[in-house]
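Below is how a single chain appears once it has passed through the pipeline. First comes the sequence as given, then the structure the pipeline wrote out for it. We keep one example in the README because the format questions we get most often are answered faster by looking than by reading.
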Amino acid sequence: MAGADLTAMVVAAVGVTGTMVAPLLAQWARRKELAEAAERAELRLQQDRDEGDLQRRRDLYAVLNSAARAYRTAGYDLVFALKRGESVDESALEAARSFYLDQYAQAQMVLPGRALNIASEVNHCLSLGYRLVRMLPAHAGHQDAWSRTETWFGTQLAEAVWLLRHALREDLGVLDEFPDVVDLGEQLRATRKRVERELESGRDSSPSNGD
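Resulting structure:
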């Protein structure tokens, strides 16, 4: 009889304990569910932020790349027009330059160090191209000036714009099979410095371009 009483007491105690613990377990489970839901919501929000940031960078980089190409093209077109002795309107070059500089200023605020270094060098190269074009009317009879300018626009500046595009693609995670952009940037910088030294050596005198 005592054994039966003990069993009954144990069953009753377990029942009481279960009744008391069940709400606590349910409350704990609910809190855990809410915490997991909040964590998932925060993760989705962060993913949306990252995707939005990536899209904004894509849009900005696309416009910067297009602006750099248009700037170079406008300058190159002006070189050939001057060479042909045509009456030229420099407004296209000035408009392309202004738009590019605006896009470059915006890109400076978001580009990371590696891509920013390349973009900065390309900006110097484009500025040198602008300087060379502005020099041409004062050096109409100097074949060296024409040759230097055509070579710069047709070779070095074309490579600079190409390099900018790949540096931007690399920053967006689009990987291509080509030499390291840093090495190419250094080579471009060395070439630009050489041309600038030639201009400053006294063989050419050019007006300040304000860059």
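The two ends are 105 Å apart (CA to CA).

See the next section for the split statistics.
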